[in-house]
Every structure is written in structure tokens, then in C-alpha cells.
UniProtKB/TrEMBL annotation:
Keyword annotations: Membrane, Transmembrane, Transmembrane helix
Source species of the chain: Pseudobacteroides cellulosolvens ATCC 35603 = DSM 2933
The keyword Membrane appears for this protein: yes
Protein name in UniProt: ABC transporter permease
Domain of life: Bacteria
One protein family per Pfam: ABC2_membrane_6
Transmembrane domains' residue ranges: 29-54, 66-88, 109-134, 146-177, 198-221, 233-253
């Protein structure tokens, strides 16, 4: 418990300093936040275009798809907010700056990700919550205490899956310096979490469920709330998949840490 309090206080201090520094450039913050919101809204626009010509997609109507989209977006947001520094790990490794993370008596992953808090992700969080509330009202969903608890559990699991996939992709940089394409691939694949997995053929359903489980970021958890009469029991595996993937990802990270020895200069 003392260790948790220590890391919590340290994280708050580090992030507060980062936010103060970032807010010195307010124009950059406003522009980047607007760009992120526009990018996410563009994804919604695709739904509206599709529904001009069809009534549903594999039994999913427009408001159900908006719920699915917002759930997946909400699950990806913790990665955006707290782990955005993973995008530049290859640069730190290449120029030798990463070696500094070995010299502090704190967890290396914590130290590394704590240096950046992507505040423009707060705009993404607001958008996701707004769309979630809108679609819930349109669909007439009843948020019972059980549903609220399961929502929190599923979001936790889904967010952990996304974080784990990103961490594994970023850890490839310990072996292949120019590995940003792996991280880009993971984020591109995560976009499929916003669509019903039933629109894909059997091969891709298997990939998105068992190999790169992005279907558990949005589709399976959303079915619990939208289609409770036909919910797949596998949805309850979401938090366990998230925890299991994070354990694997963290161990890959640790193996990479142990092999890294700086630039040699």
C-alpha cells in the first residue's frame, strides 16, 4: 500500500509538471485536440454514409454502431492519455537517452510512461462519453447497478488489452530500432474494434479474437449491453485477457530492458 501511495504521488507530481510545460504552448494544444476530435468524428461520418443506403450492418443499426464505436474509443483513450510516450521509444533508444531510465530507483516502465500525459486525449475522452450517452439514450438502455459494474470491468479489460498490444509493439524497438511500423500496424488493427466482427470472414474473426484480440476492445463487451439475449459467454473473459496480455507484454518489456546496453558511444 505504501508503494502504491508513493507511485501515485510521484505520478501526480510528474504529470502536473508536464502539463504546466505543455500549456505554455496553448495553440499547439488546441490545434492537436481539434485534429484528434476531427479524426474520430470522421470515423462516425462513415457510419452515416453507410446508413444512407442500408438499414443495418449484420443486424446492427446506426445507434448500436455508435455505441460500439464510442465504447471502443473510450477503451483506447487510457492508452492515448497515459502511454503516448511509447510512440517515441525508438528515438530514445537510438540516441542513447533511454539509458537514463536505468538510474532511478523506480520501476522503469512507470518512469518512462510518466514523462508524458497526452492532454489532447481528454478531448477524445469527452467525445467518447458524449457519444456513449447519446447512443444509450437513443437505444433506451437501462443502466442497472450490475450493468454499471460490468461496464467498468469491461472497460478496464479492453483498455488493458490495447495498452498491452501497444507495449508489445513498442518493445520490439529493443531488437529493431526502426520498428514504428509495428506500432502503427497495431493501432490500425485496433480500428477494427469499432466494427462488428461478424462483417469479417472466418479467418479474420479468428485473428481478431485469438491472435490480436481487438474484438475484445469493442465488439464483445458491447454485445453484453446491446444484445444481452445472444451474448457470447467469451465476453466475460475480457478482463482476464487484458491482465494476461499485460503480464506477457510487461515480461517482453523486461527482456528488452535486460538486453539494452546503450548506444555504445
Amino acid at each position: 500500500m505504501k508503494r502504491l501511495k508513493f507511485y501515485s504521488r510521484l505520478y501526480i507530481k510528474m504529470i502536473s509538471q508536464y502539463i504546466k510545460a505543455r500549456m505554455q504552448f496553448r495553440s499547439d494544444f488546441y490545434i492537436s485536440t481539434f485534429a484528434m476530435l476531427l479524426l474520430n468524428i470522421t470515423g462516425l461520418f462513415t457510419y452515416w454514409v453507410l446508413f444512407y443506403s442500408i438499414n443495418n450492418i449484420e443486424g446492427w443499426n446506426l445507434n448500436e454502431l455508435i455505441f460500439l464505436y464510442s465504447f471502443a474509443l473510450l477503451a483506447v483513450t487510457p492508452m492515448q492519455l497515459f502511454f503516448d510516450n511509447l510512440w517515441v521509444i525508438r528515438i530514445s533508444l537510438r540516441n542513447g537517452n533511454f539509458i537514463k531510465y536505468y538510474f532511478k530507483p523506480i520501476n522503469t516502465l512507470f518512469y518512462y510512461v510518466s514523462e508524458v500525459f497526452d492532454i489532447k486525449g481528454l478531448g477524445q475522452l469527452v467525445l467518447a462519453l458524449t457519444m456513449l450517452i447519446y447512443s444509450s439514450v437513443k437505444l433506451g438502455l437501462h443502466w442497472t447497478p450490475l450493468n454499471i459494474i460490468m461496464f467498468v470491468v469491461f472497460i478496464f479489460g479492453s483498455a488493458l488489452i490495447m495498452i498491452s498490444l501497444a507495449l508489445m509493439a513498442a518493445s520490439v524497438s529493443f531488437w529493431v530500432i526502426e520498428s514504428v511500423s509495428v506500432l502503427v500496424l497495431i493501432f490500425k488493427l485496433s480500428e477494427y474494434a469499432r466494427y462488428p466482427i461478424t462483417i469479417f470472414n472466418g479467418f479474420f474473426r479468428f485473428i481478431f479474437t485469438c491472435i490480436i484480440p481487438v474484438a475484445f476492445i469493442g465488439y464483445y463487451p458491447s454485445r453484453f449491453f446491446l444484445k444481452p439475449d445472444s451474448v457470447d459467454m467469451g465476453v466475460f473473459a475480457t478482463p482476464f485477457i487484458g491482465i494476461g496480455l499485460f503480464i506477457i507484454a510487461y515480461n517482453i518489456w523486461r527482456i528488452g530492458l535486460n538486453r539494452y546496453s546503450g548506444t555504445g558511444s
